[in-house]
Amino acid sequence: MTKRFPGVVANRDIALTVRRGTVHAVVGENGAGKSTLMKILYGMQRPDEGTIAIDGEQVALHSPADAIARGIGMVHQHFMLADNLTVLENTTLGAEKLHGIGGRARARIQEISQAYGLGVRPDALVEDLGVADRQRVEILKVLYRGARTLILDEPTSVLVPQEVDALFDNLRGLKEEGLTVLFISHKLDEVLKVADAITVIRRGTTVAEVDPAGTTSRRLAELMVGSELPSPEASESTVTDTEVLAVRGLTLTEPDADGVARTVLDGISLTIHRGEVLGIAGVEGNGQAELVETIMGMRAADSGSVVLDGKDISGLLTRARREAGIGYIPEDRHRHGLLLEAPLWENRILGHVTEAPNSRRGILHPSAARQDTARIVAEYDVRTPGIEVTAASLSGGNQQKLIVGREMSGDPALLIAAHPTRGVDVGAQAQIWDAVRDARRRGLAVLLISADLDELIGLSDTLRVIYRGRIVADADPATVTSEELGSAMTGAAANGNERPEGDTP
Ligand SMILES: Nc1ncnc2c1ncn2[C@@H]1O[C@H](COP(=O)(O)OP(=O)(O)OP(=O)(O)O)[C@@H](O)[C@H]1O
């Protein structure tokens, strides 16, 4: 199959064969063409050349509805469930014709849930479910619509190790029932654990089909980039005793969907020094996103304060906080990080309008901004035909590289990084880590939120565990394992150094 976009060939005569009853992984660098291939298979995009055959029969997929009719379903990376509806309502929405919306639908959901060990309860409210459960609901939704082949886009990026194992059990269950799973992943160790076959894509074309039994993650990564990889260097501590960020007793209450007040942040205190990376580990939904947005002034705390470089910035607007020296890599790059329909160079200015080189003495300076965008594109290896294309036309990983480059520019005192390498490939991940370590050596303080426990452990000088809006444990990144951290995050706190009640520094 071949698929061209203006200035890029996203898929170049790509070939893929997936056998029924297998788990098949697709790996490749950012921008290699994985998502494009999956979108074509799900009928979201049309190939310029080439054919698709299912069970030997050539098919034309003009829309996701066509794909579903042919038994192909997709679970997207960003879940698409309505929070205020139940599992039953979410599942039947748009599929009322299949089994109605009542008793028959409920029975069918229970049947599917049992058959594949998904443990999904039809009457649970989606907002009460954790990330892993929501993912199972997404899978169930696709199965409910009759899919025999499931496409999953980076399914493990939001899960803790224990949840990844559970998901893999589910995937094995599906394949034992004769279903087929096709998934994209950047986590090569995981791919090796679960896949029966691995297709490697480089620069838009298939370069290898690999048997997981006979390969290593390093070898896979080398196939992806087409050369040998540098080994990651261990880094010495650069932590100083100069405070950059001090958060004191931050408390936030917000109404839930029923209007009932809920404590989201419960007296959070933390301090980050020059040269220190402080990592926050937690299962998604335990307050880490709200913590970041409160520090950034996007939510108003009920009490507590945020002090940057000795100045209380609690009363400032988000823009003023950025100008005071905070770089911010947001969790949701589409909502808070980019203007998707604007060209790359305008995205360079976004959130940094008043700074050099984007403006001089209050006057916008497009040519300097353009030049600096070209610098970021080169330095962070953003794969793009140019800086005039829209952000929407970049692959997910390349969008992320652009944001990281932008937020590291202008030498911030503090970098708040929420999932900085989500969706980027191993090469780009190493590059972003290097950039953070370099900046840290120059005295940058970093607040790191990540669901990637290896990243948290590898990059942090200090680790704290957040659970239900409270810091419940500390862990030493030099000794803690990702399994121990995973258990501490799920509330067990057994393997971290649990903090006694009221122990705030
Ligand atoms: N709608 C589009 N318009 C223009 N170019 C596009 C569009 N979608 C994808 N591309 C380009 O096609 C190439 C392949 O992108 P794709 O999203 O398939 O990569 P990927 O392997 O999924 O990357 P990632 O791991 O970063 O998600 C990239 O160069 C990207 O910029």
Automatic annotation (TrEMBL):
Q: Which keywords, in A-to-Z order, does the entry hold?
A: ATP-binding, Nucleotide-binding, Repeat, Transport
Domain ABC transporter, by residue range, is 1-228, 247-493
MF annotations from Gene Ontology: ATP binding; ATP hydrolysis activity
Q: Which Gene3D superfamilies match?
A: P-loop containing nucleotide triphosphate hydrolases (3.40.50.300)
Q: Quote the InterPro entries the UniProt record gives.
A: AAA+_ATPase, ABC_carbohydrate_import_ATPase, ABC_transporter-like_ATP-bd, ABC_transporter-like_CS, P-loop_NTPase
The cross-references to Pfam families, in alphabetical order and at most eight, read: ABC_tran (PF00005)
Q: Where is this region: Disordered?
A: 482-505
Q: What is this protein called?
A: Heme ABC transporter ATP-binding protein
> What organism does the record attribute this protein to?
Mangrovactinospora gilvigrisea
Q: What is the lineage of its organism?
A: Bacteria, Bacillati, Actinomycetota, Actinomycetes, Kitasatosporales
